Amino acid sequence: MKAAKSAGADLAEIRIDLLKESQRPKWPNLIAEKVLPVIVTNRAVWEGGNATTDENERIQSLVDAVTLGAEYVDVELEAAESFRDCCLSTGIVLDPTARLILSHHNFDRPLSADEINNVIADMRDANADICKIAMLATSALDNSVVYNTLKAAQSPTIMLAMGELGTPSRVLAPKYGGFLTFASVGAGRESAPGQVDTETLVNLYRFRNIKPDTPVYGVIGNPISHSMSPALHNASLKHADIDGVYLPLKVEDNVPGFILSMMQQGFEGFSVTMPGKLAAMRAMDEVDEIAAKIGAINTVVRDDSGNLKGYNTDWVAAISAVEEAIGDGGLVGKRVVCIGAGGAARGLAFGALERGASKICIVNRTEGKAVELAEELGDAANGMSLDAFNDVEGGAQFDVLMNTTSVGMHPDIDDTPVNSKLFKHGQVVFDAVYNPLETRLLKEAAAAGCVTVSGMEMFVRQAAEQFRLWFPDVETPVDVMRKVVVSRLSS
Ligand code: NAP
């Protein structure tokens, strides 16, 4: 409990049923020594808990908790009557000593709005001071059900969607009027799936600052737990003293539906990462011209009239870093090689031509895809296979090489997509891979006298451009962003 307090918790939940077998009989000591107000819970096995005593003893422990001074007791809705009977027979009066949380959990599926309304009505009939519902999220859209329930609540209510898909509902409880949220004491010590740890909740997401009108941003992707964007954007919002929170948003399907639904819940903007960059376009009222050519967006901006516009900040991030490395004249008239023909390649190839490159050669493991992309790019482009490119010992003529494949990414850090004999002094070499910060490709290019640009620059700059689009009147804290990314990647 001391750890919870120092991590920033306002109250602590004593889960009697989750204590070690040997510690369980000593749970009253936790109340005697409490340093925070407490909720006492002894969750029944039939409600997903671990209580091993018989039902009478379990209910008695909750009544004892009230006698011992617990501020809240959590009782399953199904056990409300037994608890009330036990209080009456023991002569315990809850109010104003302790408050009764009646709870309902479904670990298998989300509940419909009708089911939720019925459960809440039953809880209120059973004299709940606080209603608590936790349900498994099987879709990112289930968060909306939580937000709608909290907004419509007539009395103090806790509602959470469990699992990684439901994590936003835990962080955003204060935005929609939730009575409280649950966070773990530390990473890896969650008592329910999808919980974030208290320190992250308080310091990264600035939970205490979240109010009903706090703007929400987030990065849509799948998987998303590894994303550095929440660390980077939340640090930037804090640095710039902007009211706002930025969340990881795991979305497995229906990205357009998710965007539209969350916009109705008061979200303000999104970053979009793989695999939703194409699908997200379907939710837009307007798509930036180059993003439309590339066929992918990574940023969603809502304008004052509520219209959604999609942008692609990936290409400008990489291309501006490359132009800076080239110096005067930038890409104008330069011969560019792009290794890869996937999503990142499309952005960088269109971007290079947009900025005046005279030729672009698309080089890809699967030659057909290289040729296809080159055809889309027009007369200045040609496509070839990676094998053929690497075979031309010292013969390939280019000024700039951009790797957009994942070759060389951690843990395969000894791999490189390019024959190092192709590098010549003065060329500029960019690698979209940013973990490690210096890939084998960049090391070999630097050794040959090339100017190198790390994928970290692309990552930081695409985020900086997003920040600029969301907050055009605020100076973008690029240095803060760079610091966050470097410290993440170096640790
Ligand atoms: P993608 O659409 O899946 O394309 C992957 C490309 O890599 C394809 O051309 C694929 O060739 C090629 N490839 C994959 N494995 C390969 C291998 N073992 N040998 C040779 N070629 C291989 O992915 P993407 O979205 O373009 O992303 C590509 C990379 O860029 C990822 O590492 C991503 O992390 C990085 N990225 C970085 C940033 C940043 O901010 N720094 C932003 C976006 C992306 P085939 O066509 O033959 O399969």
List keywords for this structure.
19 helices, binds NADP nicotinamide-adenine-dinucleotide phosphate, 491 residues
Short summary of the structure?
With 491 residues, the chain is of the alpha/beta class. 37% of the residues lie in helices and 18% in strands. Strand 1 (12-15), helix 2 (27-32) and strand 2 form a beta-alpha-beta unit.
Shape: elongated
Percentage of residues in strands? 15-25%
Radius of gyration: 27 Å
Distance between the termini: 29 Å
Residue stretches low in confidence (pLDDT < 50, at least 5 long) are: none
Overall number of strands: 18
* Ligands: NADP nicotinamide-adenine-dinucleotide phosphate
- Biggest sheet record: 6 strands, parallel
Nearest-integer average pLDDT: 96
Number of helices: 19
Widest β-sheet, arrangement of strands: 1-2-3-4-5-6
By secondary-structure content and strand pairing, the structural class works out as alpha/beta
Question: Percent range for helical residues?
Answer: 25-40%
Task: Report on the architecture of this protein.
This protein has 491 residues and is of the alpha/beta class. 37% of the residues lie in helices and 18% in strands. The chain has helices at 2-7, 27-32, 55-68, 80-90, 113-125, 142-152, 167-171, 173-176, 198-204, 229-239, 255-264, 289-294, 314-326, 343-354, 367-377, 386-391, 440-447, 455-470, 478-490; strands at residues 12-15, 38-41, 72-76, 99-106, 130-136, 157-162, 216-221, 245-250, 267-272, 286-287, 299-302, 308-311, 335-339, 359-364, 381-385, 400-403, 428-431, 451-453. Strands 1-2-3-4-5-6 form a six-stranded parallel beta sheet. A six-stranded mixed beta sheet has the order 8-7-9-11-12-10, sandwiched between helices. The mean pLDDT is 96. NADP nicotinamide-adenine-dinucleotide phosphate (NAP) binds at residues 274, 314, 340-345, 364-366, 369, 386, 404-407, 409, 417, 432-434, 455, 458-459, 462. Residues 274, 314, 340-345, 364-366, 369, 386, 404-407, 409, 417, 432-434, 455, 458-459, 462 line the site of NADP nicotinamide-adenine-dinucleotide phosphate.
